[in-house]
Amino acid sequence: MRIRPPRLLCALTAVAALAGAAALPGTASARGVPPPTAADTLAVAKTPPEVLRAMRRDLGLDAVQARRRLANEAAAGATAGRLAQRLGGSYAGSWVEGAESARLTVATTDAAAVPAIEAAGARASLVRHTLAGLDGAKDRLDRAARTVRTADTPVWYVDVRSNTLVVQAVRAAAVRPFLASASVDPALVRVVVSADRPRPLYDLRGGDAYYIDNSARCSIGFPVTRGTQQGFATAGHCGRPGSTTTGANRAAQGSFQGSTFPGNDFAWVAANASWTATPYVNGQGGQNVQVAGSTQAPVGSSVCRSGSTTGWHCGTIQQHNTSVTYPEGTVSGVSRTTVCAEPGDSGGSFITGSQAQGVTSGGSGDCTSGGTTYYQPINPLLQTYGLTLKTTGDPGPGPGDPGGGTWAAGTVYAAGDQVTYGGAGYRCLQGHQAQPGWEPPNVPALWQRL
Protein backbone atom coordinates (compact mmCIF):
# COMPACT_ATOMS: atom_id res chain seq x y z
CA MET A 1 0.00 0.00 0.00
CA ARG A 2 1.41 3.40 -0.94
CA ILE A 3 0.48 6.52 0.99
CA ARG A 4 0.80 9.93 -0.58
CA PRO A 5 1.87 12.94 1.51
CA PRO A 6 -0.99 14.57 3.44
CA ARG A 7 -2.59 17.91 2.75
CA LEU A 8 -4.51 19.85 5.35
CA LEU A 9 -8.26 19.66 5.12
CA CYS A 10 -8.56 23.44 5.30
CA ALA A 11 -8.34 23.30 1.51
CA LEU A 12 -11.38 21.02 1.42
CA THR A 13 -13.73 23.68 2.73
CA ALA A 14 -12.98 25.77 -0.31
CA VAL A 15 -13.39 22.73 -2.55
CA ALA A 16 -16.71 21.92 -0.92
CA ALA A 17 -17.90 25.48 -1.38
CA LEU A 18 -16.74 25.94 -4.95
CA ALA A 19 -17.24 22.52 -6.50
CA GLY A 20 -20.93 22.96 -7.27
CA ALA A 21 -22.07 23.12 -10.87
CA ALA A 22 -23.20 26.25 -12.66
CA ALA A 23 -25.83 28.05 -10.63
CA LEU A 24 -29.49 27.84 -11.51
CA PRO A 25 -31.49 31.05 -11.71
CA GLY A 26 -32.64 32.17 -8.29
CA THR A 27 -30.05 30.23 -6.31
CA ALA A 28 -27.73 31.94 -3.86
CA SER A 29 -24.72 31.66 -6.17
CA ALA A 30 -26.69 33.09 -9.09
CA ARG A 31 -27.43 36.13 -6.92
CA GLY A 32 -23.72 36.68 -6.31
CA VAL A 33 -23.79 35.05 -2.85
CA PRO A 34 -21.29 32.21 -2.33
CA PRO A 35 -23.00 28.82 -2.01
CA PRO A 36 -23.07 27.37 1.50
CA THR A 37 -20.10 25.35 2.66
CA ALA A 38 -20.54 21.86 4.03
CA ALA A 39 -20.22 23.30 7.54
CA ASP A 40 -23.02 25.76 6.76
CA THR A 41 -25.30 23.00 5.46
CA LEU A 42 -24.71 20.80 8.50
CA ALA A 43 -25.12 23.75 10.92
CA VAL A 44 -21.75 23.24 12.59
CA ALA A 45 -21.86 26.76 14.06
CA LYS A 46 -25.03 25.79 15.93
CA THR A 47 -23.54 22.73 17.62
CA PRO A 48 -24.95 22.75 21.15
CA PRO A 49 -22.52 23.43 24.00
CA GLU A 50 -23.44 20.08 25.58
CA VAL A 51 -22.00 18.26 22.58
CA LEU A 52 -18.86 20.40 22.65
CA ARG A 53 -18.38 19.73 26.36
CA ALA A 54 -18.71 15.99 25.85
CA MET A 55 -16.20 16.12 22.99
CA ARG A 56 -13.81 18.01 25.25
CA ARG A 57 -14.11 15.40 27.96
CA ASP A 58 -13.94 12.27 25.79
CA LEU A 59 -11.73 13.44 22.88
CA GLY A 60 -9.44 15.84 24.75
CA LEU A 61 -10.48 18.90 22.72
CA ASP A 62 -11.30 22.46 23.69
CA ALA A 63 -14.38 24.17 22.23
CA VAL A 64 -12.44 25.76 19.34
CA GLN A 65 -10.82 22.46 18.39
CA ALA A 66 -14.15 20.65 18.61
CA ARG A 67 -15.80 23.13 16.23
CA ARG A 68 -12.85 22.90 13.85
CA ARG A 69 -13.08 19.14 13.91
CA LEU A 70 -16.79 19.19 13.07
CA ALA A 71 -16.22 21.68 10.24
CA ASN A 72 -13.40 19.55 8.83
CA GLU A 73 -15.54 16.42 9.02
CA ALA A 74 -18.38 18.16 7.19
CA ALA A 75 -16.00 19.28 4.43
CA ALA A 76 -14.40 15.84 4.23
CA GLY A 77 -17.75 14.12 3.76
CA ALA A 78 -18.61 16.37 0.81
CA THR A 79 -15.19 16.03 -0.82
CA ALA A 80 -15.10 12.26 -0.34
CA GLY A 81 -18.58 12.01 -1.86
CA ARG A 82 -17.46 13.86 -4.99
CA LEU A 83 -14.32 11.79 -5.32
CA ALA A 84 -16.24 8.54 -4.86
CA GLN A 85 -18.46 9.49 -7.78
CA ARG A 86 -15.47 10.48 -9.92
CA LEU A 87 -13.41 7.35 -9.16
CA GLY A 88 -16.29 4.96 -9.77
CA GLY A 89 -15.26 1.30 -9.57
CA SER A 90 -11.72 2.07 -8.40
CA TYR A 91 -12.94 3.80 -5.23
CA ALA A 92 -11.77 1.96 -2.10
CA GLY A 93 -13.14 4.09 0.75
CA SER A 94 -12.21 7.21 2.71
CA TRP A 95 -11.55 8.33 6.27
CA VAL A 96 -10.48 11.30 8.35
CA GLU A 97 -7.60 11.44 10.83
CA GLY A 98 -5.99 13.76 13.35
CA ALA A 99 -7.19 15.44 16.54
CA GLU A 100 -9.20 17.93 14.44
CA SER A 101 -9.94 15.53 11.55
CA ALA A 102 -7.73 17.78 9.43
CA ARG A 103 -6.60 15.02 7.08
CA LEU A 104 -8.84 13.22 4.60
CA THR A 105 -7.54 10.08 2.92
CA VAL A 106 -9.22 8.60 -0.15
CA ALA A 107 -8.21 5.11 -1.29
CA THR A 108 -8.19 3.85 -4.87
CA THR A 109 -6.97 0.86 -6.84
CA ASP A 110 -6.10 3.04 -9.85
CA ALA A 111 -2.77 4.88 -9.80
CA ALA A 112 -4.06 7.19 -12.52
CA ALA A 113 -6.67 8.52 -10.06
CA VAL A 114 -4.08 9.76 -7.55
CA PRO A 115 -3.65 13.25 -9.12
CA ALA A 116 -7.41 13.87 -8.97
CA ILE A 117 -7.51 12.91 -5.28
CA GLU A 118 -4.59 15.17 -4.44
CA ALA A 119 -6.02 18.03 -6.50
CA ALA A 120 -9.09 17.90 -4.24
CA GLY A 121 -6.87 18.44 -1.20
CA ALA A 122 -6.99 14.84 0.05
CA ARG A 123 -4.27 12.28 0.63
CA ALA A 124 -4.25 9.34 -1.80
CA SER A 125 -3.81 5.73 -0.72
CA LEU A 126 -3.16 3.20 -3.49
CA VAL A 127 -4.54 -0.19 -2.47
CA ARG A 128 -5.27 -3.66 -3.89
CA HIS A 129 -8.99 -4.09 -3.31
CA THR A 130 -11.95 -1.91 -4.29
CA LEU A 131 -14.59 -1.04 -1.74
CA ALA A 132 -17.19 -2.78 -3.91
CA GLY A 133 -15.13 -5.97 -3.86
CA LEU A 134 -14.69 -5.95 -0.09
CA ASP A 135 -18.35 -5.07 0.45
CA GLY A 136 -19.31 -7.98 -1.82
CA ALA A 137 -17.26 -10.38 0.30
CA LYS A 138 -18.86 -9.02 3.45
CA ASP A 139 -22.32 -9.47 1.92
CA ARG A 140 -21.52 -13.15 1.34
CA LEU A 141 -20.60 -13.50 5.01
CA ASP A 142 -23.89 -11.80 5.94
CA ARG A 143 -25.82 -14.34 3.88
CA ALA A 144 -23.85 -17.25 5.32
CA ALA A 145 -24.56 -16.02 8.87
CA ARG A 146 -28.25 -16.75 8.34
CA THR A 147 -27.58 -20.48 8.28
CA VAL A 148 -24.26 -21.11 10.07
CA ARG A 149 -23.26 -20.59 13.69
CA THR A 150 -21.26 -17.37 14.21
CA ALA A 151 -21.04 -17.15 18.02
CA ASP A 152 -17.24 -17.51 17.87
CA THR A 153 -16.93 -14.98 15.01
CA PRO A 154 -19.28 -12.31 16.39
CA VAL A 155 -18.15 -9.24 14.40
CA TRP A 156 -17.09 -8.59 10.82
CA TYR A 157 -16.68 -5.41 8.82
CA VAL A 158 -14.82 -3.75 5.96
CA ASP A 159 -11.91 -1.71 7.34
CA VAL A 160 -11.14 0.87 4.65
CA ARG A 161 -7.98 1.98 6.45
CA SER A 162 -6.34 -1.45 6.16
CA ASN A 163 -8.17 -2.33 2.91
CA THR A 164 -9.31 -5.64 4.38
CA LEU A 165 -12.39 -7.51 5.49
CA VAL A 166 -11.88 -7.89 9.26
CA VAL A 167 -13.35 -10.85 11.12
CA GLN A 168 -13.23 -10.57 14.91
CA ALA A 169 -13.12 -14.01 16.46
CA VAL A 170 -13.09 -15.48 19.95
CA ARG A 171 -11.16 -18.43 18.45
CA ALA A 172 -8.99 -17.94 15.38
CA ALA A 173 -9.77 -21.48 14.26
CA ALA A 174 -13.44 -20.54 13.84
CA VAL A 175 -12.69 -18.10 11.01
CA ARG A 176 -11.67 -20.51 8.25
CA PRO A 177 -14.90 -22.57 8.20
CA PHE A 178 -16.94 -19.35 8.32
CA LEU A 179 -15.08 -18.00 5.26
CA ALA A 180 -15.43 -21.33 3.47
CA SER A 181 -19.19 -21.36 4.07
CA ALA A 182 -19.40 -18.02 2.24
CA SER A 183 -16.76 -18.74 -0.45
CA VAL A 184 -14.71 -15.76 0.73
CA ASP A 185 -11.04 -15.65 -0.23
CA PRO A 186 -8.91 -15.67 2.98
CA ALA A 187 -6.50 -13.27 1.24
CA LEU A 188 -9.13 -10.54 1.69
CA VAL A 189 -9.43 -11.13 5.42
CA ARG A 190 -7.63 -9.89 8.52
CA VAL A 191 -8.41 -11.86 11.68
CA VAL A 192 -8.62 -10.06 15.03
CA VAL A 193 -8.76 -12.34 18.07
CA SER A 194 -10.81 -10.85 20.92
CA ALA A 195 -12.71 -12.22 23.89
CA ASP A 196 -15.45 -9.62 23.41
CA ARG A 197 -18.93 -11.01 22.91
CA PRO A 198 -21.20 -8.04 22.11
CA ARG A 199 -24.74 -8.08 23.47
CA PRO A 200 -27.77 -5.81 23.11
CA LEU A 201 -27.75 -3.10 25.78
CA TYR A 202 -30.91 -4.07 27.62
CA ASP A 203 -31.67 -3.15 31.15
CA LEU A 204 -34.11 -4.49 32.89
CA ARG A 205 -34.79 11.96 25.19
CA GLY A 206 -33.25 11.22 22.13
CA GLY A 207 -31.69 9.85 25.24
CA ASP A 208 -34.70 9.88 27.60
CA ALA A 209 -35.65 6.65 29.31
CA TYR A 210 -38.80 4.73 28.47
CA TYR A 211 -40.15 1.44 29.75
CA ILE A 212 -41.48 -1.48 27.72
CA ASP A 213 -44.53 -3.35 29.05
CA ASN A 214 -43.80 -1.80 32.47
CA SER A 215 -40.61 -3.82 32.71
CA ALA A 216 -37.44 -3.37 30.64
CA ARG A 217 -35.92 0.09 30.11
CA CYS A 218 -34.44 1.53 26.91
CA SER A 219 -33.71 5.02 25.57
CA ILE A 220 -35.44 7.14 22.96
CA GLY A 221 -33.39 7.61 19.81
CA PHE A 222 -34.89 10.49 17.84
CA PRO A 223 -38.39 11.99 17.75
CA VAL A 224 -40.09 11.42 14.39
CA THR A 225 -43.39 11.91 12.64
CA ARG A 226 -45.34 9.78 10.20
CA GLY A 227 -47.92 12.05 8.68
CA THR A 228 -49.72 13.55 11.67
CA GLN A 229 -48.66 10.72 13.98
CA GLN A 230 -45.86 11.60 16.39
CA GLY A 231 -43.43 9.15 17.95
CA PHE A 232 -39.78 8.17 18.17
CA ALA A 233 -37.16 5.89 16.64
CA THR A 234 -35.34 3.37 18.82
CA ALA A 235 -33.66 -0.05 18.79
CA GLY A 236 -35.56 -3.08 17.53
CA HIS A 237 -34.39 -5.35 20.33
CA CYS A 238 -36.15 -3.11 22.85
CA GLY A 239 -39.65 -4.25 21.89
CA ARG A 240 -41.96 -5.96 19.42
CA PRO A 241 -44.98 -4.60 17.54
CA GLY A 242 -47.79 -4.14 20.04
CA SER A 243 -45.52 -3.77 23.06
CA THR A 244 -46.65 -0.78 25.12
CA THR A 245 -44.38 1.94 26.44
CA THR A 246 -44.41 4.36 29.34
CA GLY A 247 -42.22 7.42 29.64
CA ALA A 248 -39.52 8.26 32.15
CA ASN A 249 -42.33 9.75 34.26
CA ARG A 250 -44.15 6.39 34.07
CA ALA A 251 -47.06 7.98 32.20
CA ALA A 252 -48.64 5.97 29.37
CA GLN A 253 -46.73 6.86 26.22
CA GLY A 254 -47.47 4.69 23.18
CA SER A 255 -46.76 1.36 21.48
CA PHE A 256 -44.30 -0.22 19.07
CA GLN A 257 -45.59 -0.03 15.48
CA GLY A 258 -42.69 -1.71 13.72
CA SER A 259 -39.61 -3.57 14.94
CA THR A 260 -36.84 -5.59 13.30
CA PHE A 261 -34.29 -7.63 15.27
CA PRO A 262 -32.10 -9.48 14.48
CA GLY A 263 -31.13 -8.76 10.86
CA ASN A 264 -31.36 -5.06 11.62
CA ASP A 265 -31.90 -3.39 14.99
CA PHE A 266 -34.49 -0.66 14.49
CA ALA A 267 -38.02 0.14 15.59
CA TRP A 268 -40.43 3.01 16.00
CA VAL A 269 -43.00 3.84 18.64
CA ALA A 270 -46.18 5.83 17.99
CA ALA A 271 -46.95 8.14 20.91
CA ASN A 272 -50.37 9.02 22.28
CA ALA A 273 -51.81 12.54 22.26
CA SER A 274 -50.16 13.42 25.56
CA TRP A 275 -46.70 13.37 23.98
CA THR A 276 -45.23 15.80 21.45
CA ALA A 277 -42.27 15.05 19.21
CA THR A 278 -39.57 17.69 19.56
CA PRO A 279 -36.38 18.20 17.51
CA TYR A 280 -34.11 17.63 20.49
CA VAL A 281 -31.86 15.13 22.22
CA ASN A 282 -31.47 15.15 25.99
CA GLY A 283 -28.10 16.74 26.68
CA GLN A 284 -25.89 16.93 29.73
CA GLY A 285 -27.75 18.35 32.70
CA GLY A 286 -31.07 17.97 30.87
CA GLN A 287 -30.26 20.69 28.31
CA ASN A 288 -31.83 20.36 24.86
CA VAL A 289 -29.48 19.49 21.98
CA GLN A 290 -30.84 20.49 18.58
CA VAL A 291 -31.08 18.03 15.69
CA ALA A 292 -30.73 19.71 12.29
CA GLY A 293 -30.58 16.71 9.91
CA SER A 294 -29.30 13.20 9.31
CA THR A 295 -26.24 13.46 7.06
CA GLN A 296 -24.00 10.44 7.56
CA ALA A 297 -20.55 11.30 8.95
CA PRO A 298 -17.38 9.72 7.46
CA VAL A 299 -15.27 7.04 9.10
CA GLY A 300 -12.98 8.62 11.69
CA SER A 301 -15.47 11.36 12.57
CA SER A 302 -16.36 12.29 16.11
CA VAL A 303 -19.69 11.04 17.38
CA CYS A 304 -21.53 11.47 20.70
CA ARG A 305 -24.19 9.35 22.34
CA SER A 306 -27.02 10.12 24.74
CA GLY A 307 -28.50 7.35 26.85
CA SER A 308 -30.66 7.07 29.94
CA THR A 309 -28.05 5.11 31.92
CA THR A 310 -24.76 6.87 31.25
CA GLY A 311 -25.77 10.21 29.67
CA TRP A 312 -23.35 11.87 27.22
CA HIS A 313 -20.24 10.14 25.94
CA CYS A 314 -18.19 10.72 22.79
CA GLY A 315 -15.72 8.86 20.62
CA THR A 316 -15.10 8.22 16.93
CA ILE A 317 -16.71 6.20 14.14
CA GLN A 318 -14.48 3.21 13.37
CA GLN A 319 -16.42 1.54 10.55
CA HIS A 320 -19.76 1.71 8.79
CA ASN A 321 -21.64 -1.34 7.50
CA THR A 322 -20.50 -3.70 10.26
CA SER A 323 -22.07 -7.06 11.05
CA VAL A 324 -22.22 -8.20 14.67
CA THR A 325 -23.56 -11.42 16.17
CA TYR A 326 -25.46 -11.11 19.45
CA PRO A 327 -26.83 -14.13 21.36
CA GLU A 328 -30.16 -13.51 19.58
CA GLY A 329 -28.67 -13.48 16.07
CA THR A 330 -26.68 -11.40 13.58
CA VAL A 331 -27.35 -7.72 12.90
CA SER A 332 -25.89 -6.17 9.74
CA GLY A 333 -25.37 -2.61 8.55
CA VAL A 334 -24.54 -1.12 11.94
CA SER A 335 -21.71 1.36 12.62
CA ARG A 336 -18.90 0.52 15.05
CA THR A 337 -17.63 3.21 17.43
CA THR A 338 -15.25 3.81 20.33
CA VAL A 339 -18.07 5.30 22.42
CA CYS A 340 -18.93 3.49 25.65
CA ALA A 341 -22.44 2.43 26.64
CA GLU A 342 -24.20 0.34 29.25
CA PRO A 343 -27.52 -1.51 29.66
CA GLY A 344 -30.46 0.86 29.40
CA ASP A 345 -28.66 3.07 26.84
CA SER A 346 -30.10 0.90 24.05
CA GLY A 347 -32.06 2.84 21.46
CA GLY A 348 -30.48 6.13 22.47
CA SER A 349 -29.17 8.83 20.17
CA PHE A 350 -25.87 8.96 18.29
CA ILE A 351 -25.19 12.43 16.90
CA THR A 352 -22.31 14.22 15.16
CA GLY A 353 -22.56 17.97 15.67
CA SER A 354 -26.22 18.57 14.92
CA GLN A 355 -26.61 15.60 12.53
CA ALA A 356 -28.42 12.48 13.74
CA GLN A 357 -26.38 9.33 13.05
CA GLY A 358 -28.28 6.43 14.57
CA VAL A 359 -29.72 4.60 17.57
CA THR A 360 -27.69 2.59 20.05
CA SER A 361 -27.73 -1.14 19.38
CA GLY A 362 -25.24 -3.06 21.55
CA GLY A 363 -21.60 -3.53 22.34
CA SER A 364 -19.03 -4.67 24.86
CA GLY A 365 -17.31 -3.06 27.83
CA ASP A 366 -18.72 -0.22 29.91
CA CYS A 367 -18.21 3.47 30.69
CA THR A 368 -15.75 2.73 33.49
CA SER A 369 -13.24 0.64 31.59
CA GLY A 370 -14.24 1.75 28.06
CA GLY A 371 -15.77 -0.29 25.30
CA THR A 372 -17.07 -0.67 21.76
CA THR A 373 -20.63 0.30 20.85
CA TYR A 374 -22.61 -0.24 17.64
CA TYR A 375 -25.40 1.98 16.36
CA GLN A 376 -28.11 1.32 13.81
CA PRO A 377 -27.90 4.15 11.24
CA ILE A 378 -30.93 6.42 11.33
CA ASN A 379 -31.54 6.86 7.59
CA PRO A 380 -32.37 3.20 6.82
CA LEU A 381 -34.70 3.24 9.82
CA LEU A 382 -36.50 6.33 8.54
CA GLN A 383 -36.76 4.84 5.06
CA THR A 384 -38.05 1.45 6.21
CA TYR A 385 -40.94 2.88 8.21
CA GLY A 386 -41.65 6.03 6.17
CA LEU A 387 -40.73 8.34 9.04
CA THR A 388 -39.63 11.97 9.03
CA LEU A 389 -36.94 13.04 11.44
CA LYS A 390 -38.01 15.96 13.63
CA THR A 391 -35.50 18.77 13.03
CA THR A 392 -34.99 22.32 14.18
CA GLY A 393 -33.01 25.39 13.14
CA ASP A 394 -33.27 27.70 10.16
CA PRO A 395 -33.43 25.68 6.93
CA GLY A 396 -32.56 28.76 4.91
CA PRO A 397 -34.37 30.28 1.94
CA GLY A 398 -35.92 28.24 -0.79
CA PRO A 399 -34.31 27.96 -4.21
CA GLY A 400 -36.24 30.84 -5.75
CA ASP A 401 -37.22 28.86 -8.85
CA PRO A 402 -40.19 26.61 -9.68
CA GLY A 403 -38.27 23.49 -8.66
CA GLY A 404 -40.10 20.43 -9.84
CA GLY A 405 -38.56 17.10 -10.74
CA THR A 406 -38.05 13.96 -8.70
CA TRP A 407 -36.38 15.45 -5.61
CA ALA A 408 -38.73 15.52 -2.61
CA ALA A 409 -38.36 16.65 0.99
CA GLY A 410 -38.74 13.77 3.43
CA THR A 411 -37.12 11.24 1.11
CA VAL A 412 -34.07 9.36 2.35
CA TYR A 413 -31.29 9.49 -0.25
CA ALA A 414 -28.17 7.31 -0.36
CA ALA A 415 -24.86 8.32 -1.90
CA GLY A 416 -25.09 7.80 -5.65
CA ASP A 417 -28.87 8.31 -5.94
CA GLN A 418 -29.90 10.60 -8.79
CA VAL A 419 -32.74 13.14 -8.89
CA THR A 420 -33.93 16.00 -11.05
CA TYR A 421 -34.73 19.46 -9.77
CA GLY A 422 -35.40 22.73 -11.57
CA GLY A 423 -34.67 21.14 -14.93
CA ALA A 424 -31.24 19.79 -13.92
CA GLY A 425 -29.97 16.40 -12.78
CA TYR A 426 -28.13 15.82 -9.49
CA ARG A 427 -26.28 12.95 -7.83
CA CYS A 428 -26.32 12.48 -4.04
CA LEU A 429 -22.89 12.80 -2.39
CA GLN A 430 -23.77 11.91 1.24
CA GLY A 431 -26.66 9.90 2.62
CA HIS A 432 -29.34 12.04 4.30
CA GLN A 433 -33.06 12.67 4.64
CA ALA A 434 -34.04 15.63 2.47
CA GLN A 435 -35.73 18.60 4.10
CA PRO A 436 -36.98 22.03 3.00
CA GLY A 437 -34.02 24.34 2.42
CA TRP A 438 -31.82 21.43 1.32
CA GLU A 439 -32.92 21.55 -2.33
CA PRO A 440 -30.06 20.25 -4.54
CA PRO A 441 -28.87 23.60 -5.96
CA ASN A 442 -28.69 25.05 -2.43
CA VAL A 443 -26.51 22.38 -0.80
CA PRO A 444 -23.45 21.47 -2.89
CA ALA A 445 -22.16 19.49 0.10
CA LEU A 446 -24.98 17.00 -0.45
CA TRP A 447 -25.66 17.12 -4.20
CA GLN A 448 -23.49 17.28 -7.32
CA ARG A 449 -25.00 18.66 -10.50
CA LEU A 450 -24.71 16.32 -13.47
Protein model, in words:
With 450 residues, the chain is an alpha+beta fold. It has helices at residues 10-18, 38-41, 49-59, 63-87, 114-119, 131-144, 175-182, 378-385; strands at 2-3, 91-97, 103-108, 123-126, 155-159, 164-169, 189-193, 199-200, 209-212, 216-219, 222-226, 229-234, 244-247, 252-260, 266-271, 280-282, 288-290, 302-307, 311-326, 329-337, 349-352, 355-366, 370-377, 388-389, 412-413, 418-421, 424-428, 432-433, 447-449. Among the domains are: 131-193, GMP Synthetase, Chain A, domain 3; 199-389, Beta Barrel (Thrombin, subunit H). 19% of the residues lie in helices and 34% in strands. An 8-stranded antiparallel sheet has the order 10-9-13-14-15-12-11-24, with helices on one face. A 6-stranded antiparallel β-barrel has the order 18-19-20-23-22-21. Helix 1 (10-18) packs across helix 4 (63-87) and helix 6 packs across helix 7. The longest helix is centred in the first third of the chain and has 25 residues, at 63-87.
